[in-house]
Protein: N-substituted formamide deformylase
Amino acid sequence: MSESSAPPKTVLLRRGEVHSPADPFATAMVVERGQVAWVGSEGAADAFADGVDEVIDLDGALVTPAFTDAHVHTTATGLALTGLDLSAAPSREAALALVRDFAAARPHDRVLLGHGWDTARWPDGRPPTRAELDEATGHRPLYLSRIDVHSAVVTTALLDMVPGAPREDGPLTADAHHAARAAAFAAVTPQQRTDAQRAALAHAVSLGIGTIHECGGPKISSADDLTDLLRLAAEEPGPRVVGYWAEEDVAKARELGAAGAAGDLFVDGSFGSHTACVHQPYADADHTGRAYLDTATVAAHVVACTEAGLQAGFHAIGDAAVDSVVEGVRAAAEKLGLARIRAARHRIEHAEMLTPETVAAFAELGLTASVQPAFDALWGGEDGMYAQRLGVERARTLNPYAALLRAGVPLAFGSDSPVTPLDPWGTVRAAAFHRTPEHRISVRAAFTAHTRGGWRAVGRDDAGVLAPGAPADYAVWRTAELVVQAPDDRVARWSTDPRSGTPGLPDLTPGRDLPVCLRTVVGGHTVFVRPGE
Structure:
């Protein structure tokens, strides 16, 4: 019997800081039968000490709910962790040198896989040519996805594996990219895939992530990839995995064990690859991106999912794409009734380019915004990629988290890993210190979106919080003094008044060290302990 299948221990954690709405000054917690049984003060903890299987002395550490990353591509994340990562390459020449070294070190790989190049940060602003990649790899098959995973550069040998693939030079996008990615990933052996999934899941729990939402689909991965991942997560200690399948086939999603026919069901592409669908042309291109689904298709899918009792969801980034989704969901509500649509908690992934009207529509229709604050940290600001693509004025409108919260739109935070790394505290920091000040939210609200918000996004309102009866999914952190941080200084001053009963969180001011995960527990089972602790 594995540890994950054995009954969880009854545990008392004491002499720390427990982040709980049940008691904002809690220093101790009891976990029993995989659930939080009690939270309270150190003095009351003595009464439990003799009746538990284990006592953990926190020695001042912070205990929080485990994070939920609401948008992950697990196998691709693992392949990036174990394969070629170009995200830190400062130039095209440096990227080519890394490709050359990687190819030399992997003489037996059927296909070389890499990820993370970003011409927006390179001095000459251009990707490697096919000839350059052919030379660097010794004319072997190579697939290199751009950082946003919406385009890729490949070698001639990989194109030879894709019937009918276009031969013009330059990054592949849309259907040509999907075909090239499918060919590259088909060459990954089942063992390589399992190793990559294990690496990604182990990395997640080392960061205090207790649940991930896997966003699979026929244009992203494969049915076997999703079912193998769900089986692995069920059989081995690690994070919970909730699967989504991005296809307009409700029966297929149900057959695969997915929570919804949702996730990266593409309505458009991305800003970085000029494929996000926008109303007005790009500032640096004479077109408006790509539209993959129209309003009628969105409406039909939402109706089908709602009637089947599954979540619908869409990848929508540009304002034209978001409008198509809103209009489609509204049409579905006119057919089925608003109450049924709201109860289904359909999701929009990314939802970057919003207007006040679309924010209001999200609230009206009960849509969850599954968003990635690290996108703003990476691409925001007046000199960032968003401004290059859209101009400074339009770029300032992106990722309006404060407006979404004010309207009552549920937020669920994620990374879209490997687009941006698994990094939960960094994600909370990115939302609290958004590059556009009017879009900033408090650390507390951001933390809630990355813990409870992920559970609510899958229909669970009783989890993602340390309170009696909640699942015992928690993480223990070494961190500095706890504070309350809010965009409005008056709120911060009120919140630090003991009478407010607001539990503190780590100081996430940019430049300060982020908390270090010491232990992660899922369902009462310890799935990670930092070596030496």
Summary: The mean pLDDT is 93.
